[in-house]
Amino acid sequence: MERINVLVADDHLLVREGIVAMLSNVEDIDTVSVVSNGEEVIEAITSANIDVVVMDVMMPGLTGIDTAKIINQVDPRIKIILLSMEVNSELIAHGINSGASGYLPKDSPKSVLVDAIRTVYEGELFFNHQVTKIVFQDFYVQSKTGSKPAGKNKDTVSKRELEVLKLISEGKSNREVADKLFISVRTVDAHRNHIMKKINAKSTADLVKYAIKNELITL
User: Fold this and answer.
1) What is the reported pTM?
2) Topology, domain 148-213
3) How far, in Å, are 37, 86, 121, 139 from residue 133 at the CA level?
4) CATH 3.40.50.2300 region(s) of the chain?
5) Which of 118, 122, 109 is closest to 30 using CA atoms?
6) Angle between helices 89-97 and 204-213 (to 10 degrees)
7) How far apart are alpha carbons 5 and 183 in whole angstroms?
8) Is 27 left (phi over 0), alpha (psi -120 to 50) or beta?
9) SS3 at position 56
10) What does the pLDDT look like over 90-134, one tens digit per residue?
11) In this protein, which residues make up the domain named Response regulatory (predicted)?
């Protein structure tokens, strides 16, 4: 069985120990590093084989968002899940822009955290219902008020690619996109790769940022 190496970062000892305890009996997840701040995260990812970082947003010194940006520069292979006591549109937007693949409230149950780790490890995004609702409510308000960001690359993306991009941006897996559009998983993957090349995206998080900024998501 392929195992997922996880780093846990939070400045509160009880939170760190709680996350470690939640993951301790999950057969395909190993907590290989536990740290208390962003500086220690950067040090750990350069000295250990880390697949997924589960990290608090509001740590002293380097915040989780600042740390996520550095991780993406140092090793973009590593997936990042941000955890927060406060879930609002501004923090979520900053989280997405930092390159995080997941964003969860700190009161999420074990099953959601485990699902999130497995999902981002496979290259997908993971936002729970609460976070997704906030993101799209914010987008809806923006569209109703007429505030439209620039969309220089809209015309370069085909209609089918827009359909794929919409579903990806909603957090759907390749299999779910394929089932929804009645196409193969391989075709979904091909569309994803074509879109990423056209808009110069490096990750799935970049696709979501592009969709939000260019209003390519139909509510």
Assistant:
1) 0.63
2) Arc Repressor Mutant, subunit A (1.10.10)
3) 29, 15, 23, 10
4) 4-128
5) 118
6) 130
7) 33
8) alpha
9) strand
10) 777 788 888 899 989 898 999 999 999 999 999 988 886 666 665
11) 5-121
